[in-house]
Amino acid sequence: MTGSVTTGSVTTALWGRVEQQDFRSRVRGALLGSALGDALGAPIAGLSLDGIRETHGPQGLTEPAPAHGRRGAVTAATQLTLFTVDGLIRAHVRRDTGAWHPPTDVHRAYLRWAATQHDWGPDERRKENGWLAHEEWLYARRGPDRACMTGFGDEILGTLEQPKNPTARDAGAMVRSAPFGLLVGWEPALVLQLAVECATQSHGHPTAYLSAGALAVIVHGLTRGESLDAAVQRALGLLGSRAGQQPVTDALQRATAAVTRGVPSPEIIASLSPGDGHGAEDALAAAVYCALVAEDVRHGLRLAVNHGGNSTATGALCGALLGALHGETALPAPWLADLEGRPTLLELADDFALEMTQGPTLHGPTLSSPGWLTRYPRA
Asked: What one-character-per-residue DSSP string does 280-297 give?
C-alpha cells in the first residue's frame, strides 16, 4: 500500500514556546470551530433554503438557535471528532509498546463512540477505559450517520481492500476527519493516507474517503501556517494519483473558481453541487468556498449553513478550516459561551497539543506519567 501509515515514517517536530502556543491555538480553533459550525447548522438540518428563510427570516439563520432541546447543541459529527482525537492520542501513547498501527487505535476509539449510542447503564459505562467515554453528555444520540452506525456495529476493521459500506458516499466520515490534519509532525501524504484508511472503516466509496483525506490535508496545511488556497492546491496535488479522485478534485476546483463570481450567496453554494448537495464532495466544496470568501468566522459559518444542502456537515467543515486558519481567538465568544461540551472540547484539544509537543516527557519505554496513562491507556 503506497504511503501506508503502518510502515511510513513520521517526522518529529522540534517545538519552541511560541510554536507550541500557536499550535495549541490552532488545535483549539479547529475543534471548537468545527463544533460551532455543527451546532449552528443543527437547527436547520434537513430544511431547504426556502424552509430556512420561512423559519428564520430572509437572511436565514444568523445566530445559534435551539436544537435537541438547547441552544448550542452539537450532533454526532462533533462526538465522532472527539473520539478521532482520543484515538490519535492513544496511537502515539501505544507506540511505546512497539505497536504502531494508528488506524487500529482510531477504530477502537470509534467503537467506544458506538458504545455511547446504545442504552448502556452506569455499570457498562464504567467498563470503558480512559476518560472520554465517561463524559455523560456524549451518550445522547444526535442523528448519527447510518453508515457510521453500521460501520462500527461490529469489531471488524474496514480497510481500503475491504471497506465497510462501499456505496456510502455522504459526508459522515469526512466530518470527523479534521483532527488528522492536526498531525503537523507528519508528512502530508501520510496524513492523507491515514484519513483515507480511517474513513473506509464506515464509508467505502472513493468519493467519501478521498474527501475525508482532502479535508485532512487542507487542515494540515493551515495548521502549519499555509494559506487556505495553498493548502487546497496541495490537496489537489496529492489526490491526483488516486483512483476515483475526479469527483473530489472537480469539487475543489469548483470551490476555488467560484471565489471570483461576485458577492457570496446561497445560490453560488448550490451551484457547487451538481447533484443533490448531500455527497461528501458537495459538502467539501461548499465548506472550502465559504472559508475562502469568509470576512470572519461568523460570516463564513453563516454562509456555510444557509443553503439547501447538508447544513451541519458544511458548517462543521467550514468551522474546522477557519479555526485551524485563524486560531481560537477568532471564534465568536457569544457562540462559544453556549456551545455544548465546550469544557470537554478544550480539555481534549489541550491534551492533544500536549501529546504532540511534549509526548516524550509524558510516556516512554522506561518512564511514564501514571495520570497520563490513566487518561489514555496503552491497552
From this structure: HHHHHHHHHHHHHH-SSH
